[in-house]
Structures are given as structure tokens and as C-alpha cells.
Amino acid sequence: AMKHSAIDLLESDPGLYAFLLERVGKAHLRQRIGVETEHAADRFGQGRTFFHIENWRLARQVIRAALKASGLWGRGQRNVFDFKLRRRCWKFPHLPESFEGYTILQLSDLHLDSVEGFAERLAQSVSRLDYDLCVLTGDYRFLTFGPCDKAMAGLDVLCRAIDTDIYAILGNH
How far apart are CA 105 and CA 137, in angstroms? Predict the structure, then answer.
């Protein structure tokens, strides 16, 4: 049977539980398990979710087929790979002189598992930039539940292209 909740996953892998407990702490882990449990109940429980779009296994395929038939699929794919670099410059009066010209690369809402080849193309783009520090601000995966192997593989590809310190936070995905 497929495991649907974070509790089911953690019960099936005590090593993962111990790792997460040490990595994020008891309070945050409890909070995240609560979020996952509520999500699972919404998707799979109480009999009121018969036609919840996330329960429909073919939803992605049907949406993809409709987008392809309408001609919007190709446009969407081009938009995904059309990376935009936005530069912001801030002046801080009391910042130490050593930070003059300091550049931070922020990447957010990457959803690295949503489009084939996305992580590789993003890594290629990032490797051409010049920056002093990289911050990754969450949402590395598309779904908020289930296996995260593709997102982790994409994150590995991206991190290998970043040649400076990386600081990261989790998103809600």
C-alpha cells in the first residue's frame, strides 16, 4: 500500500525520523508532520474529497493533453526556461566597507522536479553569474507530499553549479 502521510513515512523509516529530528529540531518536525497529516486528511479522508483534483491520478496527463491541444504547452515550456535576472542595489549607511559591492544570488520557488531538464538549464545559467553568496529560499519540489527524489536530484545538480557558500531554507513544498 502507498504511504500517504508523513507519519506513515517516518514510522516506516526510523533512521529518517532520527535524521530529521537532529536536523530541524523537535518543534519544527512536529509542526511539519501536522501540516502533512492535515494535507493527507484533506486529500484522502472524510469522504468529502471524491473529486479533489489531487486525488485524480490522471489530472496531470489530462491538463498536459489539453495544453498541447490548445497550443499553450510549447509556450509554457519556453516560459519555464526563460530565466530572468533581476538586480537590486541597496545602500546601507552603517554596513562595513568589506561588504561594498557584495552580491547575493537568491533563488526561490524552483520546483526542480516539475519540468524535465529544468535543473540542468538553471545550473548552466547560474554557473555564468558572478556573486559572493547564494541563498535558496524554498520550494524545491512541485508537490507537497510523496517522494522527493527528483527534486533532490535537481537540487544536487544546481548546488554543484554554485561555487560559493549556500544558505537555504525550506518552503511549504
Answer: 11
